Amino acid sequence: MAYQLYYWTGIQGRGEFVRLALEDAGAAYVDVAREEGDGVLTPWLDGQHDGALPYAPPFLKSGRLVIAQVANILQYLAPRHGLVPETESKRIYAHQLQLTIADLVAEAHDVHHPVGAGLYYEDQKDEAKRRAKEFRDSRIPKFLHYFENVVERNGGKHALREFTYVDLSLFQVMSGLTYAFPKCMARQKLPLLRDVARRVEARPNIAAYLSSNRRIPHSEDGIFRHYAELDG
After folding, report:
1. In whole angstroms, what is the distance from residue 210 CA to residue 108 CA?
2. Taking burial as the number of CB atoms within 10 A of a residue's CB, which of 55, 90, 126, 196 is the most buried?
């Protein structure tokens, strides 16, 4: 039975972290809203279906299971598709790293929506400029050099000592931040993280996905948005 992934159409967003895992694993899945439209999400979010109630997309349906939150979904998928080692300590560590990535993604989103997610960027541009400077000068280096250190401590090729879903997520983070903050990212010395991203990009299933129309480009509607005035 194919997995059913529920996420908004037209953007990569947080759903992309799940897509990358499904694509790399060669798992059968249906990107439901892309086939039926965003309206298909509403009954789930309104509690009209059985199972766990998701707060927001992405969420994944696997048989009778309904699983929400990116790190939670990946923690479920990874052992079923060889995307994490079997040992408990490594699975916990992978989940820890993914939760840290979730923190970074939330901060990247809040750069362009520092006052409120329900307001337009144009309504909070002054606050966004102030938030962006702190994100560029402090938060991007702190997060990415942490992950650079993680890779170095684990042999220099992967976040753990073998390929896992965390590498896929680090690729997405590097891709998104490079799109949103090209000048800032060009200044970062991250040889190991850049190598991880290249390794992921070269994986056969990921390379095929990235060259397909299933991979929606970054845009100013997603999490990672490029506004020149926010890049310094």
Report:
1. 22
2. 196
Contact 168, 71 (CB under 8 A): no
Instruction: Answer positive or negative: Cα dihedral of 199, 107, 227, 116.
Output: positive
Q: Which is it for the CA torsion 9, 113, 166, 68, positive or negative? A: negative
Phi and psi at 138, nearest 5°, equal: -120, -55
% residues pLDDT > 70 (the chain): 100
- What residues pair up with 185 in beta bridges, in sequence order? none
Residue 31, classed as helix, strand or coil, is strand
Residue 159: both structure tokens together: 């976040």
Amino acid identity of residue 175, one-letter, is S
The 10s digit of each residue's pLDDT in 162-187 is 999 999 999 999 999 999 999 999 99
Rg of the chain, C-alpha, whole Å: 18
For residue 78, report the phi and psi dihedrals to the nearest 5 degrees.
Answer: -55, -50
Let me know: does 97 contact 35? Beta carbons within 8 Å: no
pLDDT of residue 132: 98
User: Residue by residue, what is the 3-state secondary structure of 59-70?
Assistant: EEEECCEEEECH
Identify the band that residue 1 occupies on the pLDDT scale cut at 50, 70 and 90. confident
Q: Can you give 139-201 as a three-state secondary structure string?
A: HHHHHHHHHHHHHHHCCCCCCCCCCCHHHHHHHHHHHHHHHHCHHHHHHCCCHHHHHHHHHHH
